[in-house]
TrEMBL record:
UniProt gene name: ptpA
Identification of the protein by name: protein-tyrosine-phosphatase
The EC number(s) this enzyme carries: 3.1.3.48
Pfam families: LMWPc
Organism listed in the record: Microbacterium lemovicicum
Enzyme class of the recorded protein, top EC level: hydrolase
Amino acid sequence: MTASAQEPFRVVFVCTGNICRSPMADIVFRQLAREAGLGDRVGSSSAGTADFHVGEPADHRTLAALQRRGYDGRRHRGRQFSHDDFVRNDLVVALDRSHERILHGWARSEADTGKIALLLSFDRSAGTLDVPDPYYAGPGMFDEVLGMIEAAGRSLFHQLEPAIRPSAPTGPSTTPQ
């Protein structure tokens, strides 16, 4: 998949309530795109499989962990994943295998199923496929989870970057013969 000149490559990150892991992944991924000068070529969002926190800001511990690493998550508001997210996005990234199973159950076509991936599958050094849910843990776990998300987000971005980056124009050579 490649981003066209008009349409950015769109990614949605999915966890349970959309207040901890998926907002972290969204914010990290958008920052990676901006730092690479590709912020206008990438669209990133997040959603939850459940409707527990629709309209709410990210968990205060999520915001604190993000802030400690130089990210700003204050604009985030929770929302639930919908079938339209399969249409709007080129890639649907689950934060753990339970989300992946739910998304596979919601997929209406092979095209939808083909868009689903696990975030940690992009990080060969992860040692697991599930980003743990820090919701019932302390601030240290939020920092640990953010570190996992940053590493996997970098790996994902580096894998997608060649398809996202505009290709150099081709034309006649201006080199003297």
